[in-house]
Amino acid sequence: MNQLRIGDDDHDVGDRGCAACSMPYPLDCECGGLIHGTIDWEHTTVENYTRDLKCDRCHKKGRTTEKKWEPTEEVRRRAEEIAEKLTGKKWDFGVKPEGDKPE
Ligand SMILES: [Zn+2]
Ligand SMILES: [Zn+2]
Fold first, then answer.
1. Overall number of domains in the chain
2. What is the reported pLDDT for 72?
3. Any residues with CB less than 8 A from the CB of 63 and at least 6 apart, and which?
4. pLDDT at 70
5. For residue 61, is it within any domain?
6. 3-state class of 86 per DSSP?
7. Which of 18, 23, 43, 71 is most exposed, with minimal Cβ within 10 Å?
8. How far does the centroid of ligand 1 lie from the alpha carbon of residue 12, in Å?
């Protein structure tokens, strides 16, 4: 399978279940290809989630910053690890966003 390099990750071209992507990517591009996203951990914070995007067909590039993300446990741990390495501080990304309704 062909690979598409974005940042430090190799994405699988044409694969909707691409393992290098995290939800909600890959997304459909207007060219019929798939837009893959690599999380830019260096610019990802508790409130913002930054990704470098690239289409696997037309190779259109983009960059998004999304607010108020709810990471999976795995993504959260990885984010904490990397944030700790970069800043030398302990991080806790597991704080629930405000407005959560109790069960
Ligand atoms: Zn991907
Ligand atoms: Zn495209």
1. 1
2. 74
3. 40, 50, 51, 52, 53
4. 64
5. yes
6. helix
7. 23
8. 6
Residue 97 lies in a domain: no
Of the bound ligands, which one is closest to the alpha carbon of residue 19? 1
Distance from Cα 76 to the centre of ligand 1, integer Å:
19
Query: If you measure from the C-alpha of residue 51 to the centroid of ligand 2, how many angstroms do you get, rounded to a whole number?
Result: 16
Structural domain includes residue 57: yes
Ligand number nearest CA of 32 is 2
**Boundaries of domain holding 72:** 3-87
pLDDT tens, N- to C-terminus, the chain (103 residues): 799 999 989 999 999 999 999 888 999 999 999 999 999 988 888 888 889 999 999 999 999 888 755 667 777 888 888 889 988 988 887 765 555 555 5
The pLDDT, as a whole number, for residue 96 is 56
Ligand 2 center–CA 5 separation, angstroms: 15
* Distance from residue 92's CA to the centre of ligand 1 (Å): 27
Ramachandran assignment for 87, one of left (phi > 0), alpha (psi -120 to 50 degrees), beta (any other): alpha
Distance, CA 95 to ligand 2 centroid (Å)?
A: 36
